[in-house]
């Protein structure tokens, strides 16, 4: 069973998973992995939230949502990650659904995210979950391979 909990972005369990996520992105894309400016306060209620998924007492994934560019009805997903040993077991989909529900409960009616062509498993997850391509946005909007998605909640 997957247990999903709201945590502070600065808690060690969250920072450890975020570091692993950035290392994974670095291996796929080079550089730092993701140099998008992130303020931990953006992931604090009511402007956002950061979730960690646990299985049998072990943290296996994370993801956060934050208010998108000050728009009170749009959320942006950031730092979605599942540890390699837990991939393909429904962790990412459970996190995605929990993030959507948290954003919906906070009054958001749309959710957006960006990913990249070197993450085909992420693209497959988002498409399966009902996300559609939208114009690219964010820190990497002009980079080759960026893929942006959105969904009405």
Short description:
With 153 residues, the chain is an alpha+beta fold.
Write the layout of secondary structure elements.
Elements: E1 2-7, H1 12-29, E2 48-55, E3 58-68, E4 71-82, H2 91-105, E5 110-116, H3 120-128, E6 132-133, E7 146-152
Strand line-up of the largest beta sheet: 1-2-3-4-5-7-6
Through-space gap between termini = 25 Å
Morphology call: globular
In CATH, the homologous superfamily goes by the name Gcn5-related N-acetyltransferase (GNAT)
- The stretches of 5 or more residues where confidence is low (pLDDT under 50) are none
Describe this structure in words.
Strand 2 and strand 3 (58-68) form a beta hairpin. The longest helix is centred in the N-terminal third of the chain and has 18 residues, at 12-29. The protein has helices at 12-29, 91-105, 120-128, and strands spanning 2-7, 48-55, 58-68, 71-82, 110-116, 132-133, 146-152. The chain has a single domain (2-152), classed as 3-Layer(aba) Sandwich (Aminopeptidase). The protein is built from 3 helices and 7 strands. A 7-stranded mixed sheet has the order 1-2-3-4-5-7-6, sandwiched between helices. The chain is α+β, with helices and mostly antiparallel strands. The protein is 27% helix and 35% strand. The chain is globular and about 40 Å long.
């Amino acid at each position: 069973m997957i247990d999903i909990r709201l945590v502070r972005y600065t808690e060690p369990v969250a920072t450890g998973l975020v570091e692993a996520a950035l290392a994974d992105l670095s291996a796929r894309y080079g550089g730092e992995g993701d140099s998008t400016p992130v303020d931990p306060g953006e992931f604090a209620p009511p402007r956002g939230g950061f979730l960690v998924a646990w299985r049998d007492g072990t943290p296996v994934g994370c993801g956060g949502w934050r208010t998108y560019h000050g728009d009170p009805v749009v959320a942006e997903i950031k730092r979605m990650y599942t540890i390699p040993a837990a991939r393909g077991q429904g962790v990412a989909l459970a996190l995605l659904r929990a993030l959507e529900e948290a954003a919906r409960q906070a009054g958001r009616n749309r959710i957006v995210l960006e990913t990249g062509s070197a993450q085909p498993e992420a693209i497959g997850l988002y498409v399966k979950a009902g996300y559609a391509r939208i114009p690219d946005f964010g820190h990497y909007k002009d980079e080759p391979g960026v893929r942006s998605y959105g969904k009405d909640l």
